[in-house]
Amino acid sequence: MAAARAVFALATDPRAVHCREAVQFEFEEADVELALVRWLNLLLAHASQRGLALADFALRRSGPRWQGEARGERWHAGLERGIDVKGATLTALSVRERVPGQWEARCVVDV
Questions:
Q1: How many domains does the structure of the chain reveal?
Q2: Cβ within 8 Å of residue 94, ≥6 positions away
Q3: Residues 6 or more apart in contact with residue 51 via CB below 8 angstroms
Q4: Which candidate in 5, 47, 48, 64 could, as Cys together with 52 as Cys, close a disulfide (CB 3.0–4.6 Å)?
């Protein structure tokens, strides 16, 4: 979830976003590193298609199946626009469990 928050914090201050609308989706990916990139890109696509600023994220895994959810609101004049993130890439991609239940995830995003 921190990776998604970091990506969307480039676009606007997440503290200014009211979580009024939800985006939900599922996908399959056995590789956790590729799942990170896919999840971030799906979030960016859904946000772009619906004109949303997202600020709250959840991701659940059951084997290779992932369920993602994000909450936010439609862009409006009260939200300061920052950097437009185009997508997550495979560059410097790393996802590893540092200690049980604590993960570290990295990737480069295109802006």
A1: 1
A2: 33, 104, 105, 106, 107
A3: 74, 75
A4: 47
CATH number of the domain residue 92 falls in: 3.55.10.10
Contact 55, 5 (CB under 8 A): yes
Q: pLDDT tens across 32-54, in order?
A: 999 999 999 999 999 999 999 99
Residue 25 is part of which domain span?
2-110
Span 11-26, pLDDT tens digits:
999 999 999 999 999 9
**Average of per-residue pLDDT values in the chain:** 96
